[in-house]
């Protein structure tokens, strides 16, 4: 499974910059990001082209960060498709812990990143592909 | 102004008779203390094998000091001097490193404590006609129950509301025409600041007196509270190791707190050399129980700093007057009247694996009330990347701290390496409260 880089950051001026600075120095390309906010702190979640390099660079600077397995699904950009994906996951008892998505080619293709419980065991890739979704690996993500 | 006494004979006792009484009671106390494993061992080393070995009050100097650590090490029964069946009440306070301390009371002990509280209340001119609202916490904390029983014995109308819920406090004050209130000085200021919000003007209250204690405050704060409410404020001193409130209290003349010397032997020592200091010299208060039988404490070092006023009081009470508490000899923090040691907080946060190596304790004012903020760094190796883990961690720290220090802190999670690193002896407490 591809991995997402989750970083604990405090919510105060300059913290986001200190992350992006390190990533920039490591020549890391950020494909997508989101922040789960809790007011005084949050967890920043990054989809990057070189997750291992990014992880080491941040950990080296003392950041509490971890690589988490996620499901990265390519969806056709048209009404009802996210609903279809969510229904499929529900049907197969895969619980979505957190998710974020972005459109990569408007009107054509979107990407959905899913942290889930249960996806490791189930034969979810086959199920999703059978229903017309694309399931991406590290290499495909880095080429997005 | 007419002076009233609860026990005129003892309150105005002459020095010679007081000393005779003290000597007799000290002998009894030593005899009682010898029943405990802790004192048996310690007093024997000092050559004291029975109460009769105390020949004069000077012999007090032969008795070693008792400290908070001794109480902690003696927990739970090392200092219990009577059969447990004789004990009718237990008060524990949170210890400095998680181990609590305990004080046992027999029926007679509680009775004596109540008598002293009655003296205190009467000394302020209050009577059975007064309505007494007790805003101190009830339960293991001695502030609530201590004053409660004295006020009831005196025959006051007691409202045992306990701490918190300011709206209800003010409503009760209005509805039942409270005339005397027992509170911490900061809570008193808090009540004042809320009167407008709850739309109860001061002229709908009937307050005449406030007994303020449990945290240090200045003469200026007393004056301020007196002017705000148009009342008289009386200073109160006590500590759970010496029962609780009722050790020292101001009379109507408000010139220092009479310490009931037929129940407590009062010494002021230099905390460094432990030498006894004379009147008007500031030092550490050392107290010896003279009447408590379940947990007699000899020469207990309170770590509170104060001095003894010189001369006689106009009220003709002969018992010495203690100054305001001017400080502490240790690092104990007083947060909304509750005693908190930084080590208690450290003990809790450092046993939680997801907490890193650094933490900080910040004290701030939220209005007139204290706010304690515990900042911890998270331990990067145990971070799972899941925000629910952080939510749970925060809740766990809060819950465990509340269990340890009684009050609920604000917990903040910080990045590893982000809190200031203290050089040498850790300076982890940042107290930015304005002194009352």
- Could you give the distance between the termini of chain A? 16 Å
- N-to-C SSE series of chain A? EHEEHEEHEEHEH
Which segments of chain A are poorly predicted (pLDDT under 50) over 5 or more consecutive residues? none
* Radius of gyration over C-alpha positions of chain B, nearest whole angstrom: 23 Å
What's the story with the biggest beta sheet of chain A? 4 strands, antiparallel
Oligomer: heterodimer
Instruction: Provide the domain count of chain A.
Output: 2
> How many individual domains of chain B?
2
The CATH C-level name of the largest domain in chain B is: Alpha Beta
Tell me the CATH topology of the largest domain in chain B.
Rossmann fold
Overall strand count of chain B: 20
Counting helices, strands and paired strands, the structural category of chain B is alpha/beta
Question: Which structural class best describes the helix and strand composition of chain A?
Answer: alpha+beta
Describe this protein's structure.
The complex is a heterodimer of chains A (144) and B (436). Chain A has 144 residues and is of the alpha+beta class. Chain A is 31% helix and 40% strand. Chain A has helices at residues 15-25, 51-60, 81-91, 124-130, 138-142, and strands at 3-10, 30-37, 41-48, 65-69, 71-76, 95-105, 109-117, 134-135. Chain B is α/β, with parallel strands linked by helices. Chain B contains eleven helices and 20 strands. Chain B is globular and about 75 Å long.
